[in-house]
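Exercise 7.
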Amino acid sequence: MTTPEPPRSARSSLEAWGNSPFAPVGLATLITSLHFRPLQVRPMLFVPVLLFSSYANLQGFKIDSAGITAAASGTYALVAMRRRPSTFLGYFSARGLVRGVAVGISLANVAAAGWVYATGDRKEEKEQRRDNPRWVE
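Solution. The predicted structure, written as tokens, is:
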């Protein structure tokens, strides 16, 4: 019989979420689904920033990527929470639920990526990039 995995601590879960390149891409997908039709320019400005953050993460710049993700996600959350649905039932429409999930993921990104950015060790990250170069033959 296999032994069960030990439970993960809250700190390791935060670090895993903050170091993941999928969190900003997921938020960019939700922002696009909400604001592309009809086109709303201001919220759509966050999509390329979040995609660049994911690209930087894949290139090995995890701490800098976490800082970009935290800043963009926090700013988007502030912009998105300014708008209020006109009716109470607007909260429970498909668009309202997607908007709620997008704001929730934004706040989770702020917490997790902010933690990674605040506690990251740049010297160790630089050594990891040097020891494991990307896109080199």
